[in-house]
Amino acid sequence: MAKYLVTGAAGFIGSSLVRALLERGEQVRGIDNFSTGRRENLTEVLNRIDFREADILDLDAMHQACAGVDYVLHEAAIPSVPKSVLDPLASNRANVDGTVNVLIAARDAKVQRVVYAASSSAYGDTPTLPKHEAMIPNPISPYAVAKLASELYMVSFYRCYGLETVSLRYFNIFGPRQDPSSPYSGVLAKFSMQMLRGEQPTIFGDGTTSRDFTYIDNAVSANLLACTAPAAECAGRVFNCATGARSTLNQTFDALKQLTGYQGSVKYAPERGGDIKHSLADIAQAQKHLGYKVLVNFEDGLRRTVEWYKNQCRPVGA
Ligand code: UD2
Question: Of 22, 114, 170, 209, which is most buried by a Cβ count within 10 Å?
Fold first, then answer.
């Protein structure tokens, strides 16, 4: 039994990792400052983990959190491209300074490996598809820059201190427990909930924007593989975490219409500043070096996600 620290444990991805680790019988410590994470995400597992309310910007708290830990899964962040465009300093603090704190604490505690939630936004708007890890990053938004900077810190800590690090460039992860309620929420969470409630969703742009939407189970599996893969295969490296397929926003709206029973139309609004037009991953490196496989495709993932939100909408006892 190994000891894992999940940062951002009350977030959508963090809380999914916590559950998967508990299912495998691992020992889990979680930290969150509830800036974007929610206590409800941990409700039924809270008494099975060592949870601490802490901020990754608090280095002392990070030193305490890393003590005795084998693996750190670093998910804590302020995710959102538009939020970072509005407040680049806050994005930089959480997404860069916070990461450096986690790395320092992990190094000092002699943690075996740190796996980092990097982002596909690092690729930026390069015309080449699919995006592969050897491409030169070309980030657009402050969020993308911060995520890329943290990725480089991961590599640096491996090179300078021998701390094993693996960065997983997440491509639009979605699924149960993703918060649908904020204007900055991921598009699939937002649309699912809006359409189930009969509210009209808004597509920014003409709807031809495409994403390699990746169901949460694939990201969870990539994290677990990144912990156990031999260091020679993955330490100090970056891998795409995706499905290798993409859907446009228009296609996604149509699929959600079927699944939610929404009868209305969609509204179109101007594109969001900082957005990338197309995103699609080459997943060959993760397959080769981590043994990664796509466990759940987009269609099945979307079905499971809508089912989950339907249950959330249902009145208690219904
Ligand atoms: C970026 C990253 C993703 C992750 C995420 C964290 C890319 C390609 N992906 O996701 O991997 O790091 O940031 O936040 O950079 N949209 C609408 N209507 C809405 C909401 C969104 O049309 O109500 C559009 C939005 O303008 C964008 C697309 O949907 O074109 C996806 O937006 P998102 O916020 O779900 O995720 P994105 O791509 O910024």
Answer: 114
